[in-house]
Specification:
This protein has helices at residues 2-14, 19-58, 64-68, 71-78, 81-89, 99-132, 142-166, 170-187, 189-203, 246-251, 258-263, 284-291, 297-313, 329-342, 378-395, 409-414, 420-425, and strands at residues 212-215, 220-227, 232-236, 241-244, 255-256, 266-274, 354-357, 365-373. It has 426 residues and is an alpha+beta fold. The strands form two sheets. A five-stranded antiparallel sheet has the order 4-3-2-1-5. Helix 6 runs antiparallel to helix 7. It starts with a helix and ends with a helix. The model has no long low-confidence stretch (mean pLDDT 83).
Length: 426
């Protein structure tokens, strides 16, 4: 190595460099050469080692070794080869006990510690992936424990790196931090809380830029456009801008509509109120009329056969309509709406779709349509919802049913003295 340095020094002097500049430059070139050689050796060793490891892992049926010994994990460990080789080679370049050698040692150790901490963090994530896939650990809060250990690990690594850079004992550094912790917490309280909340929101994937969130308590109903250390900026649908601290998102509950957007379907849950006085049993004439409806012909025939068999088996006296089982105009209306939704081109057929009765109220009998559209775009969603209920309101009288609504002014004017309706009533 000395001969190489002497030859390089003579070459630099021949180029016109001063002796001082040549003495620095020759060492710099050799250090860079050592780093390059160490890097190439690392790549060669990593390629051979990872290929051999992957061949062994593929021979096993277990899944855990695919995760633990993956290139993402082992690759982090193999990155320590370069700084270790450079560390071992520094005495060949710098004199023992020199400041340059001490600085080179410290820089190599900083890099080794940083890479090792990153490897341990990746290894912990791999263990988390293995255990979280097991049924007995599926509902356990392993992720929170993982994040806590990773934070402690990074804190220890940071303390070790800073102590190396300033050439002080970690104990001295921890003592200084303990003395100033109270002041730092007081001065930077909002920033620290915002930083921690931001990490939790990001680590748990609770919030992303572009998410639609709702927090009625704080007037938030719109899209997240920016997330910073101290604020989350939301643009409401009325184009107003609301800024809230990240800590509020951790302390209070908020609704994130990302799951709806990702699912590809948006729920419609709306009722029409049917006047209960218009519900009745179907006559043969009514059944014949309803059979002509495309979505009901098969249903009515199948239901009639089922009811006839039931009534015959139980010796039902059909002379009285309340005996046995009979179809009603409301039941057939429900069947029509269910088939109508199932055949609607804008309804998501991979999600829940049903028509059901709710608890009767003073406004009538609520008939609820519960289904999902096959789009999550707001304008298309509202158009589909309006079209469906336009059809529902228009088709209801065809089944001899009335939609309930409170009397309006025009209804009372019809009952005024001298009105034809009033005369007929009298």
């Amino acid at each position: 190595m000395n001969k190489i340095m002497e030859s390089l020094n003579d070459f630099l002097l021949s180029l016109g460099f001063s002796s001082e500049a040549a003495a620095v430059l020759d060492k710099t070139i050799i250090v860079l050469g050592i780093i390059l050689i160490a890097y190439l050796l690392e790549k060669l060793i990593a390629r051979i080692f990872l290929n051999a490891t992957q061949r062994l892992v593929r021979r096993t049926k277990a899944r855990w070794d695919d995760i633990i010994f993956s290139p993402q994990v082992l690759g982090k460990l193999l990155k320590m080869i370069t700084p270790i080789l450079v560390y071992l080679s520094m005495p060949l370049v710098f004199e023992a006990g020199s400041t340059a050698l001490s600085l080179a040692y410290r820089l190599c150790m900083v890099y080794i510690i940083a890479v090792f901490i990153r490897f341990l963090s990746e290894l912990l994530s791999a263990f988390f992936a293995v255990y979280s896939a097991r049924p007995e650990f599926k509902d356990r809060p392993i992720k929170g424990l993982l994040q806590t250990i990773q934070i402690i690990l990074y804190f220890i690594g940071g303390i070790a790196i800073v102590s190396l850079l300033i050439d002080k004992s970690p104990v001295v550094l921890l003592t200084g931090l303990g003395a100033s912790a109270a002041i730092l917490m007081l001065v930077f309280q909002d920033s620290i809380l915002g930083f921690v909340s931001g990490i939790q929101l990001s680590a748990n994937d609770m919030l992303r830029v572009g998410d639609w969130i709702e927090m009625p308590k704080y007037g938030v109903d719109g899209d997240v456009i920016e997330v910073t250390l101290n604020t989350v900026k939301v643009q409401n649908f009325d184009k107003t801008i609301v800024t809230i601290p990240p800590t509020l998102l951790m302390k209070d509950s908020f609704k994130n509509w990302r799951g709806m957007s990702d699912s590809g379907g948006r729920r419609i849950k709306r009722s029409v109120f049917v006047d209960m006085n218009s519900v009745k049993f179907c006559t043969p004439e009514m059944l014949e009329k309803f059979r002509k409806i495309h979505y009901l012909s098969q249903y009515i025939d199948g239901k009639e056969k089922e009811l006839v068999v039931f009534n015959q088996q139980h010796n039902i006296d059909n002379s009285i309509v309340v005996n046995g089982r009979r179809q009603t105009n409301l039941g057939i209306f429900r069947a029509y709406l269910s088939n109508y939704l199932k055949n609607h081109p804008s309804v998501h057929h991979g999600m829940t779709c049903m028509v059901r009765q709710l608890q009767p109220t003073e406004l009538g009998l609520p008939l609820e349509l519960y289904f999902f559209t096959n789009t999550t775009a707001w304008l298309q969603y509202e158009d589909i919802q309006s079209d469906v209920f336009d059809h529902v309101l228009a088709i209801t009288p065809y089944f001899d049913l009335n939609v309930f609504q409170n009397p309006s002014g025009s209804d009372f004017r019809k009952l005024a003295p001298g009105n034809k309706l009033e005369k007929d009533f009298n």
